[in-house]
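just leaving the lab so this will be short. what follows is a protein written twice so to speak, once as letters and once as structure tokens for the fold. can you read through it and tell me how you think this chain folds. anything you notice is useful, everything is just below:
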Amino acid sequence: MAIYHTYEAKKFNLPALEGISAKSVEEHLGLYAGYVKNFNAISGAIEELVKDAEKNAHAISELIRRRSFEFGGMRLHEKYFTQWEGRPTALNANGPLARALAKDCGSVETALTVVRQTGMMRGPGWSILYFDKEADAFLVGFTGEQHQGHFVTLPIILALDVWEHAFILDYGAQGKGKYIDAFFKNLNWDVMEKRFAEVQ
């Protein structure tokens, strides 16, 4: 049934990353694949349970809640890994994204500082740069779990994973700041510029 659509884990064209080990990336990709697998498994379970929806109402409701968590983890990681595909490139200082960030936030550096500061908040989650076309404005948000805390309907321009699994292998439990530095150092800004262009 289409409403219980299943997905396949994507492959990413990732170069060797500076400051983020191949082992860390490998384990992180395995976690991403787990989100895809779990989403599909939950979808299949719901499809069976709804055949007797009255009897299975409680189980269905809990699985539906969990399903959005797995989907959010899947999609956010796809945003995350895609940002490193190809090779690191600088943000075009004269391009539409840089100009829009400077106009709305004062400077590109100010906007990215907010992304970094949000990522440094206590606790695991994601620091996300969104764009609101209706307001012609950028927003930075934090989602502790993949399916909660989002600015609903706003497209994601940049997604920074700050769950411990993203950095603990390379930097230890206290190394989030060093990991965030490495995250930004490896970005292919062509990806974010394309995302921004697609929502204009």
User: Anything to note?
Assistant: The longest helix spans residues 22-49. The domain at 96-198 is CATH 3.55.40.20 (minor pseudopilin epsh fold). The helical segments are 22-49, 57-82, 96-105, 108-119, 168-171, 176-185, 189-198. The longest strand covers residues 126-132.
